[in-house]
Design a protein that fits this description.
Layout (H helix, E strand, L loop, with lengths): L14 H7 L10 H5 L11 H25 L1 H13 L2 H6 L3 H24 L2 H6 L15 H7 L7 H15 L7 H15 L13 H7 L7 H14 L17 H8 L1 H8 L5 H6 L5 H13 L10 H8 L1 E2 L14 E2 L1 H11 L3 H13 L1 H8 L16 H7 L11 H7 L7 H15 L2 H9 L1 E2 L14 E2 H20 L3 H5 L6
Parallel strand pairs: 1-2
Antiparallel strand pairs: 3-4
Amino acid sequence: MGGVISQETSLAENALLKRLADKDSIVDNDPFWNQLFSFNLKIDDNDSRLAAHIESSVGDLLQSLMHNTATTGNFASLIRVFLRRAEQLRESEQYENKIFLWQCANSLIVLRYVCAFLTQRMSEGEFLRTFDKGEEKKVDSDSDSDDEQEEEEIVYESTAEQFLHSLIEIIVELPVTDYTMDVQMEAVRCIITLLSTQLYREGIQTEAVVFGYLLKGVCSIRCMDLSRALLHNYLHHNTEYKRGTTGQKQAESIVFGLAASMWSVMQFVTGGEETEEESEKRPPASLGSLSALLLLTLACHPLPEGRLNPIKDALQHFLNAQEVSSLNVQIRTFKMDYSVLYERLCATVRQEPPMLLLYLLLHRNSGFRNYVLSRINLENLVRYSSDKPMVRCLFDSTKGMIPSGSSSHSQSLASSSSLPSQHHTYLSLIVILILSEDDFFCKLIHETMVSGVEWAEPDRPLGEISLGGLIALVFIRAIHRNTLKTRDHRCPRACPVSPG
């Protein structure tokens, strides 16, 4: 049993997985790796029950691998096999080598599950050292070290850093097609998994090694290109991802607070536990949604000693692709179509990650902020419809304060499981506050009449009302809820100074 891993295979009894976790070393060029990567197991990460079943099935095997890899170096061999294959990915994509691309995606799935297991049970230092186990066996004592240094274009601090750099190269350089979607998705998932070491540590680690590799080491050279690629994925690759359907399948600061609240999504990526309610609220996984999560996780990570975060810096300075700037830009940056970004943000601000992205861009990127404030259809960002619910998001946050004497319809709304989080609510307030600093925005919302807002007062329909009046009504309810329940000291400071 277990010659090939398939849907009918018992994972706990699979011979290939047993050999990987066993006490015998496996060399890099062993045909075993081709067999291991040639599986057809259906892994639907949107199905939390199936994911939990897979984790429990391979739990004992991963435990054995964790204990044995210190002597066998099999995990390090797995990493080296992937690194060798990653160098051939671009060529395989050009020639549409489906088998090779499929095996590379499978190798990343194996790596993701192993890394997720190890990060939960090892310190970050112990985990990163497993990447280099057994590497010393390949050193040739007769080789000329000077010649080796001349041949190497990049000097990595460790194999883990080289692995991260390889994943970034995939995201940046490998075109997103039906054949490469699986590889792209797993590359993003793997980076998030490696960053998830903070899930299992107390407090925010400003000196986290993996973050250091990405933001300060060799990988930091590619941060601008990585930001551009992740932002491009968020704009253009938003179809729900199911393996096999595309050619095969978060300190007191609000920014850091919301980044921490997004760890629940990272738990989903890395295979952590989540409640049934969280599963219902989580948006369908797509390359775009995961790319936005990774982009924000990196941008919101604090660096010590006032060091500049290159991801946040890239978000601050990128330009509009539809405009020719006459300014002499002294820094290296990239261009993105502001109109496409604006429309995408309008359509997704009901989710926490896009709301945080909108806040970061309005707060830090003056070019994008000026573009948004110059829009004639600016009300699209704040009015309520089925897919543009910033004001509705604020209103929904007040549902928990509906009086006991209200109608059953109102009470049923209050019991909804899709209420926005406190972070989401506060960010909505701050975004509207930033926009209200512009006189044109204030004039526009008070001149724009809206109707069909029965949701605001279910028992007393409002009829037609100005958008500014609707915002004022929702803000009053938000202050009322804050005064009686949440007592968040930041909310009363934000609401009164916004447009009334």
